[in-house]
Amino acid sequence: DDEDEDAENHALEENVSRMADINKLHAQIKEQEAESAKLMASVKASTEEEQQLRRQILLLEEEEQQLQAASTSVSETERIESLLAAWYLPGCGGEVAGEIFQEVDGDSDGCLEWKNDEIHKFVRGVFKQNNVLMPDWKDSVWYDMYRNADVGKSLSLGLDEAAEFAHHCLEGALMAFGDTLVHESLPGCDFS
Question: Which pTM value belongs to this model?
Answer without folding.
Answer: 0.55
